[in-house]
Design brief:
By secondary structure, the chain is α/β, with parallel strands linked by helices. It is 22% helix and 32% strand. The protein has three helices and eight strands; from the N terminus they run βββββααββαβ. A six-stranded mixed beta sheet has the order 4-1-8-5-7-6, covered by helices on one side. Strands 2-3 form a two-stranded antiparallel ribbon. The two termini are 19 Å apart. The relative contact order is 0.23.
Length: 154
């Protein structure tokens, strides 16, 4: 079974507009598309996955962890990854992956996860991606169960 993902491509288009004698610069747009792909098949610069604070990995996070020989669980065991709501951690150079880096986003407590927290973690991921040098990313956050919401809402 494939996991729902959102593909992001960051396109830098630098242009300017003159308004009242001032030059206003516009740049950086983001394109996205919904698709399905397994982590083992993914070749991208960054994959975004979730981690609950009960040390529970989402399906995609668990699959990436298995592919890279347990490196994500090792970081959880060391305390470097906690799953605290809003925590983001970029992981680099994980062996066994076609993906250059993984962004792990803390989801907080699973039983308290709702639409507001889903929006928050996506904004947290977006902020972290802005500072990364990746020109594309794939988010597996769409796989997260949000009470009362379907894939179209996500």
């Amino acid at each position: 079974m494939a996991i729902n993902v959102v593909f992001f491509t960051f396109v830098t288009r630098v242009s300017s507009v003159k308004l009242d004698g001032f030059r206003i610069w516009k740049s950086a747009t983001m394109n996205y598309a919904l698709n399905q792909i397994r982590p083992k098949e993914l070749a991208t610069q960054c994959a975004v996955v979730g981690l609950y604070d009960e040390r529970m990995l989402t399906s995609a996070c668990a699959e990436f962890d298995e592919l890279c020989g347990g490196a994500i669980k090792a970081l959880i065991e060391s305390g470097d990854l906690t799953g605290k709501l809003g925590q983001t951690q970029m992981l680099f150079n994980l062996s066994g992956l076609k993906t250059s880096r993984i962004l792990v986003v803390g989801l907080g407590e699973q039983r308290k996860f709702d639409a507001a927290k889903y929006i928050k973690v996506n904004k947290d991921a977006q902020r972290a991606l802005k500072t990364a040098s990746a020109t594309d990313a794939v988010s597996y956050l769409a796989e997260i169960e949000v009470p009362g919401k379907d894939i179209d809402w996500k």
